[in-house]
Every structure is written in C-alpha cells, then in structure tokens.
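Annotated sample (chain length 241).
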Amino acid sequence: MSEKLTSRKNPKVLEAFAYKKNIGDYFLVEGFHTVMMALEARLAVSVFALREIDTKGTPLYLVTDEIIDKLSSTRNPEGIVALCKKREVGRLSSSRVLMLDQVQDPGNIGTLLRTALAFGYNDVILTKGSCDPYNAKSLLASQGAIFMLNIFQDQEETIINKLKEDGYFVVGTSLQRAVSLTDFALPEGKLCLLLGNEGKGVSQTLLNETNINVKIPIANIDSLNVGVAGGILMQRFSLIK
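Output written by the structure step:
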C-alpha cells in the first residue's frame, strides 16, 4: 500500500537524499526500466513515484514533482526514483570476466557494464583509479546492469596473477606489440578481457602479465572509444551464439 509524501523535508525523502552522492551501502536510481530491474533483483528498499505502480511489496511513496526533482540527477526525470542497497560481492561466477584498468568516464563505465551483462561477462573487476560504477551517470548508462553483475572495485594490479592462477586466460588490449584480432585464435576455457584507460590504455605493468595482447584492426583513425572497443571484443569472445 502506498503512502503520500508532499514535503521535500519529509524524513523519508531526506533519508533517500542522503545517498544521492553514493556514500555508504545505498544509492539512488531513476527511470522506470532501471527501477523495475532493481525491484526484480530485490535490491530496492523504497520507491518514490508520481503514480501508483506495482513495487512487488517494496514500500511505495507517492510524491510531488518537487520531491522527484530533489532526488533525481537528470534534467527531465521520468517521475520515479528508488533507494537501493548495493549488491553483495560474491566469488567469481562465470567463465567470462571483464577487467577495467582505470577507466574513468562514467558513461564508458555504464556502457561497458551494460555490454558485459549482454554478452555473459557476469564478473567485472575495476582496478584502483576507475570510475565508481554507482556514479549517477554510470548508473544511467548501465540501464540496470549494476543489479545483475558481480562487481569487484578498487582492485590492485596483482589481481591479474590471481586470475591466471584460477585458470583464466587473460587477454589484454594494446596498440603496440599486440596480435591483430583477425589473427587471434580464441582459446578454450575461462577468459578475462582487459580494457584500459581512455587516454593511456592498459598500464604497462598489467600488459606485461597478460597471456596475450590483441588489437582491433581499424583504418582512418588512431583508436576507438573504450566502450566501442569493449563491445566488439566482448562479442568476439562471448560464448553466446
């Protein structure tokens, strides 16, 4: 059953607003599609909306446009925001892992998370210096993928050695001393795809530890956006047919 809230200073509103900057174990998401994914994942704590919706038992607060504006991070909000609990990180759960080395643009992070989910990379590793995946812009770009992925944040570069010990074949990405994607034979077994920073690429320390480094053959321009390159490579190395 829903409850009406009309004041921007209501304790429930202030409680949700406190997590707008993503401090602690909770965060805000907005937009009907993303909120529905949060509800399906059972990670939504409360929902603030302009109209009645089925929240599957999660507390629903019917609020004003002013309250939505207070909780939202977009200029033209859809009229629905949810306070969510961050998913607990488990052990590596899939044969495809995406590792991001200091990728800093929130839009790129969100796009890569969304693409990772689409192609079966259910585990994502972020090294120290990477953008927070719970950044508001990252959340919007990820379109709810954040609720379905096992995300390891602030990992040291030594994580690559642990992956290899666990049987993952680690494929780095580089423009120098790399095999062309067209000449690369996909190995059997578990694989980790390593993508790097928008400007500097993957750190040399990590490139020195990979099993192989590959590059995408392109023409007329020096490089691709990391989100685009990641999409090409994840699809190429995906087990989804």
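Annotation: Residues 106-118 form the longest helix (13 residues).
Annotation: The chain has a mean pLDDT of 94.
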